Amino acid sequence: GQQLNQSPQSMFIQEGEDVSMNCTSSSIFNTWLWYKQEPGEGPVLLIALYKAGELTSNGRLTAQFGITRKDSFLNISASIPSDVGIYFCAGPIMDSNYQLIWGAGTKLIIKP
Amino acid sequence: DGGITQSPKYLFRKEGQNVTLSCEQNLNHDAMYWYRQDPGQGLRLIYYSQIVNDFQKGDIAEGYSVSREKKESFPLTVTSAQKNPTAFYLCASSMLTSAFHEQFFGPGTRLTVL
Fold first, then answer.
1. DSSP string spanning B14-59?
2. How far is the C-alpha of A68 from the C-alpha of A72, rounded, in Å?
């Protein structure tokens, strides 16, 4: 079945560094969604991608829809302490307009 | 101010008791979802509903039940049949359209069964 593989599983970075994470699948996706979850809260949608090759920014965040439609990347520039959290990618399950399949998440930790 | 509310934020129950988690949305979304999240893991779908009075099982529906009597409300009951109910429960909603797949989440309910 469809699966989304996120990497890395976790990242320890210094404040001010740029961050890059990705999401890959053996299946084709028509949509890629990137969410951020802070401890004890629900995920918040950061960026939605609907077109292969699309590059979309939201402040310091930039996400790209891979040209093969089997991957997506999320970059965070000049990280700050409030970027801490878990970042999830998600995409619609084949033949379902309403169900999403989720990656396991990338946990971002900023070194003091 | 539109959004999704879940209550309570924290819930403690004794083993063997049924417990109902509340989820309400005022986004006028047709579809609603319940997910379970365990520490360090992603989201697993329990149940979803596309319209009132209709719902479908997700990947881990055993031991759970839902109802959808109103468009705005989608309560989840964790029954005594659920073997390991302690978890973080998230409710979400979305538009019912093939064009957009974004789901919007509530703040979650952390259930602890003692």
1. -TT--EEEEEEE-S--SEEEEEEE-TT--EEEEEEEEETTEEEE-T
2. 10
Which pairing describes strands A106-111 and B43-51: parallel, antiparallel, or unpaired?
unpaired
What's chain B's average pLDDT? 93
Q: Supply angle C-alpha B55, A29, A107, rounded to 5.
A: 85
Query: A89: nearest CA in chain B?
Result: B42
Tokens 């949509």 identify what position? Answer: A31
Question: Is the dihedral angle over the CA atoms B41, A83, B23, A97 positive or is it negative?
Answer: negative
State the Cα–Cα distance between residues B80 and A62, nearest whole angstrom. 44
Q: What is the pLDDT of residues B6-20, one digit of tens each?
A: 999 999 999 989 999
Residue A25: helix, strand or coil by DSSP? coil
Beta-strand relationship, A106-111 and A10-14? parallel
**pLDDT for res A3:** 84
Query: In the numeric block, which tokens belong to residue B90?
Result: 């998230």
Residue A9 DSSP SS3: coil
Convert the pLDDT of each residue in A20-68 to its tens digit. 999 999 999 989 999 999 999 999 999 999 999 999 999 999 999 999 9
Report the length, in residues, of chain B.
Answer: 114
Enumerate residues 43 to 82 of chain B having a beta carbon within 8 A of any beta carbon in chain A. 43, 45, 48, 50, 58
End-to-end CA distance of chain A: 41
Chain A hits for B57, CB-CB cut-off 8 Å, are none
